[in-house]
Amino acid sequence: MISSSSESSLANRRILLAEDEGLIALDVEAMLQGFGCEVVGPLSELEDILLAIQAQPLDGALLDVNLRGRQVFDILPEFISRNIPVVLTSGYDDASLFPHAFRELPRISKPFDQSTLHRVCVSTIGRH
Question: What is the pTM of this model?
Answer without folding.
Answer: 0.91
